[in-house]
Design goal:
The chain is of the alpha/beta class. Helices cover about 30% and strands about 25% of the residues. A five-stranded mixed sheet has the order 1-7-6-4-5, sandwiched between helices. Strands 8-14-13-11-12 form a five-stranded mixed sheet, with helices on both faces. Helix 3 crosses helix 4. The structure holds coenzyme A. Coenzyme A (COA) binds next to helix 2 and helix 6.
């Protein structure tokens, strides 16, 4: 058997820059309550959400990922031509092919970058980060652009009082580069397809002929809530221990922005000290699925609540059911 040559392994990777794009249109709880039988008080008390963004017709997914990516690249100090892989995490790119990632690569003028989409719902960004880290450490890529982006409003039944107030639109991106130290810790991830039915869509896209209804998302909210506050809270503990950290070592906690009560419950479970900065971007942005973690990172850094070099735990979880998370050094 002929021995093949492999590329030399690298020590680690780190996030060099993050960026995000939020659609212009703000949908307040007041406006939401013209569509569903609910109240501002109920939505705030049950989820923490005050308002969310819904994209307009002139804000297609490609435009949103492109804006988020340009911002992340600009802050990373990496020249666009040096990006050799692009991964887009989304569940709302409404065509099977071509994937969004090669379109984004072309939009950015990237020459011959590897490009593909992944479908891991609200865990999508953390899945993409795990892949970027592995690609870099094995030498399969050098500088990887990862994006989480959704136009969930396209798949939301605006009259469904169990989902309409939660889901929102946005895009967040990060540039991941080689590093002599570990800026992206080991991923803890997994899935439970036996619970696939708890967040799903009403119908197959094959049924969505022009005169038929678009499929919309449906969810067993209580089942998701239970899973997130038990199993996912344990997974967050495991992420810390696999990175060799204790709760005292953590400076920032950025869970998927699904519901403030889920975040509160995870905080109690993890027993995080008071000094830890906790992402609460759901208040103004809603649940943007794959975009929620990178948007939260960008918002915390832009507002000065979190600082470059701090140690942050990120974790995404959602439809599948799937989850993934890691400890990162903030760019
Ligand atoms: C969706 C969610 C906010 C609903 O909250 P909940 O407390 O589970 O609500 P329930 O469906 O049990 O309903 C409780 C009560 O509120 C009412 N209610 C439900 N939706 C309502 C709404 N939009 N406005 C006002 N009242 C509502 C119900 O009728 C019920 O009333 P009752 O007690 O008189 O029967 C919550 O389950 C949740 O956030 N789950 C996690 C979902 C999630 O994060 N998904 C994304 C994962 S990535």
């Amino acid at each position: 058997m002929t021995a093949l040559t492999q590329r030399p392994l690298r020590t680690g990777s780190r996030i060099a820059g993050v960026g995000s794009y939020l659609p212009r249109r703000v949908v307040t709880n007041e406006e939401m309550c013209t569509m569903i039988d609910s109240t501002d008080e109920w939505i705030q008390q049950r989820t923490g959400i005050v308002e969310r963004r819904w994209a307009s017709d002139d804000e297609p997914l490609l435009m949103m990922v492109s804006e988020a990516a340009k911002s992340a690249i600009g802050k990373s100090g990496v020249a666009p031509a040096e990006i050799d892989a692009v991964i887009v995490a989304t569940v709302t790119h409404l065509v099977q092919t071509p994937a969004l990632a090669p379109l984004l690569a072309a939009e950015l003028g990237l020459q011959d970058a590897a490009a593909y989409d992944i479908s891991a719902a609200c865990a999508g960004f953390c899945y993409a980060l795990a892949q970027a880290d592995a690609l870099i450490r094995t030498g399969s890529a050098t500088n990887v652009l990862i994006v989480g982006a959704e136009r969930l409003s396209d798949l939301t039944d605006k009259t469904d009082r169990s989902t309409a107030f939660l889901f929102a639109d946005g895009a967040g991106a990060a540039v991941v580069v080689p590093s002599d130290t570990t800026g992206v810790g080991p991923v803890v991830w997994g899935s439970d397809g036996t619970q696939g039915h708890v967040i799903t869509q009403t119908q197959d896209f094959r049924d969505a002929v022009p005169d038929a209804q678009m499929p919309t998302l449906q969810m067993e909210g209580r089942a998701v809530f239970r899973w997130a506050t038990t199993f996912i809270a344990d997974a967050a503990k495991k992420i810390l221990s696999e990175s060799g950290l204790t709760p005292e070592d953590l400076e920032v906690f950025i869970p998927h922005q699904a519901n403030n009560r889920i975040t509160d419950s995870m905080l109690r479970h993890l027993k995080l000290p008071d000094h830890v900065v906790v992402a609460r971007t759901i208040r103004r942005i809603g649940n943007t699925s794959a975009a929620s973690v990178p948007i939260a990172i960008d918002e915390l850094l832009s507002s000065g609540e979190a600082k470059s070099g701090q140690t942050a735990l990120i974790i995404g979880f959602g439809a599948g059911l799937v989850y993934a998370g890691q400890v990162i050094t903030l760019p």
